[in-house]
Automatic annotation (TrEMBL):
Name of this protein: Uncharacterized protein
Length: 412
């Protein structure tokens, strides 16, 4: 928002030019060739809109495309749940207002019915996808029966957000600042009006703190979705369990740091916090247990000739100690220095185990698996911190790591 405020005039001008060139007619000629009709010069397009008053048609296919584009789709979008709900609610509010102002009688009733049908379907799809991914994650980690509560909370918060936007429009009918100007044609430019509505609303009411009678507040949904996005890979079939105590502890430890930061920065309800804690703790334990199951499988596999490489199981206590120490980094005065110190220690221990004693013959201490020591953890951690900082409007630069986190010569 700070960046938007600073560049508000330039961004608004760009948005107006985008709106002026938004609609291009496309069709097919009798011979099969494609024809297009539109103005590609933004300034010329803007002049034409101001002279003609713009286009009053509602392009339902374009609205549908935008809703699909901004929906919850896969694990990587789970931390966008707030933006998705806000987008759906603001778009519904601006189009409902436009329809009520632009149409009357049967034409208005028909357009409103179409609006309700379209938005209900698309919002339900995102609610279903979000509740499926988060609910399945929780269930896989010992917290069952949350799907309906998550889905209903998503829908409930959407309805609340719709009401908030509709009330905001009623109190600020010229929220886009175009009435009575040469750009009044923008009142029927959907993309522009939606963008301006969200900007105007968030400028005055930056907090999106809706709660729900179904159990999950907006913060609850956001933290749950982000937790799944960041940690679901530890349950993926492609995630290798052939990892040393040190690598496993550091990898899970970074995940634990993420959850700790989320828990500290957002106002979670006690019930949801308890469930997320349970799921998180089970995930950590399951990851270590699965690493030991992998060792058992290798021992019993008749095609594995080198049984000596799997004689020792993972030391669960050692892994848990590393995880706890990684989380403690967040409390350090210099988070980057603490992280670097811990990582250097664990890498040194790993390197020693590769070279000396019984551990040197284990598969998980083979030089092939030492590549994790050159992993740049900052490239994963820093974007996460930046997203949390943007979502809370709090300066979290103290948690950032230096870009290069590679210090050891791992040659064996």
């Amino acid at each position: 928002m700070e960046e938007y405020h600073v560049n508000a005039d330039a961004l608004r001008e760009q948005a107006i030019l985008r709106a002026a060139t938004a609609v291009i007619q496309v069709g097919k000629n009798d011979d099969g060739t494609i024809w297009t009709e539109g103005i590609y010069d933004p300034e010329a397009a803007l002049k034409e809109k101001r002279e003609t008053g713009g286009d009053t048609q509602i392009y339902w296919k374009q609205i549908d495309f935008n809703l699909r584009w901004n929906r919850i789709s896969g694990t990587n979008t789970l931390d966008s749940v707030g933006q998705v709900i806000d987008y759906f609610a603001s778009e519904y509010a601006q189009y409902k207002t436009r329809i009520e102002q632009q149409y009357t009688g049967d034409e208005q009733a028909e357009a409103l019915a179409k609006l309700e049908e379209l938005f209900s379907e698309r919002v339900a799809e995102s609610a279903d996808e979000f509740s499926r991914l988060v609910g399945d994650f929780l269930e896989a980690n010992g917290v069952e029966g949350e799907h309906d509560a998550i889905r209903n909370s998503f829908l409930d918060i959407y309805e609340q957000r719709k009401t908030t936007y509709l009330g905001f429009i009623e109190d600020h009918p010229d929220y886009a600042g175009v009435k009575g100007t040469e750009d009044e044609w923008l009142l029927t430019a959907g993309n522009f009006m939606g963008e301006q509505l969200r900007y105007a609303m968030i400028s005055q009411q930056p907090e999106m703190s809706e709660a729900s009678e179904y159990g999950y507040s907006m913060d609850d949904l956001y933290v749950a979705g982000t937790l799944v996005k960041e940690l679901a890979r530890f349950q993926s079939p492609t995630w290798s369990y052939n990892r040393s105590e040190e690598e496993l502890g550091v990898e899970l430890g970074v995940g634990a740091m993420k959850y700790a930061l989320l828990s500290n920065c957002f106002d979670l309800s006690d019930d949801v916090k308890s469930k997320l804690d349970q799921a998180f703790n089970n995930l950590m334990n399951n990851a270590i247990d699965n690493a030991n199951k992998y060792i058992d499988q290798q021992r019993s596999d008749p095609f594995v000739r080198n049984k000596e490489a799997y004689t020792m199981k993972i030391d669960k206590t050692a892994v848990m100690d590393i995880i706890k120490q990684m989380v403690e980094n967040l409390n350090a005065k210099d988070v980057n220095a603490a992280f670097r110190s811990n990582l250097t220690t664990y890498m040194s221990i790993y390197k020693q185990k590769m070279q000396v004693g019984q551990t040197s013959s284990l598969a998980r201490y083979h030089s092939y698996y030492s590549s994790w020591m050159n992993q740049n953890f900052a490239s994963e951690w820093n974007p996460f911190v930046d997203r949390i900082s943007a979502g809370t409007a709090v300066d979290m630069s103290r948690y950032l790591l230096k870009e290069q986190m590679q210090w050891l010569d791992i040659t064996v």
